[in-house]
Amino acid sequence: MSLLEIDNLHVHFLSRDRLGEPRRARALNGVTFSLDRGEIIGLVGETGAGKSLTAQSVMGMLRPPAHRIAGTITFDGRDLATLPDAEMNAMRGSRIGMVVQSPMTSLDPTARIGAQLVRIQQAHGKIPRQQAEERAIAMLREVGIPDAPRRFAAWPHELSGGMAQRVLIAMALINDPVLLIADEPTTGLDVTVQAQILELLKREMTARGLATLLITHDLGIVAQYCDRVAAMFAGTIVEEGSVADVFAAPRHPYTARLIASAPDRVDLSSRAQFAGAPPDLTALPEGCVYRDRCPRAQSACAIPPPKADFGNGHAAFCHFPEPA
Amino acid sequence: MSAALQLDDIVRRFPGPQRGLFVHALNGVSLTVNAGETVALVGESGSGKSTLGRIAVRLDRPDEGTVTIAGRDTTRLSLASLRPLRAMMQMVFQDPWGTLNPRRSIGAAIEEPLVLHGKLDATARRATVLRMLERVRLQPELLTRYPAQLSGGQLQRVAIARALVTNPKLVVLDEPTSSLDLSVRADILQLLRQLQEEFGTAFLFITHDIGTVRLIADRIIVLYLGSIMEEGPATSVLASPRHPYTRALLSAEPGTFPGQHRQRIMLDGEIPSPLNLPPGCPFATRCQYAIPACANAKPQLVQGVACIRSREIGEQPAMRE
Amino acid sequence: MNTALRRAKALILSTPVGAAGLAIVLLYALVALFAPALAPHPPIKAFADSVLAAPDAQFWFGTDGNGMDVFSRILYGARYAFGISIPVLAIGMVCGVPIGLIAGYRGGWVDELALRLMDVLRVFPSIVLALAIVAATGQTLANVVIVIAILDIAVFVRVVRAEVLTLRASGMVDAAINAGNPTWRILLVHLLPNSLRGALAQMPIRMAWAVRVSATLAFIGVGVQVPEPEWGAMIREGSEYVISGEWWVALLPGTALVILVIALSMLGDGLSDLLDPRRAGRAR
Question: Per the domain annotation, does C147 fall within a domain?
Answer without folding.
Answer: yes
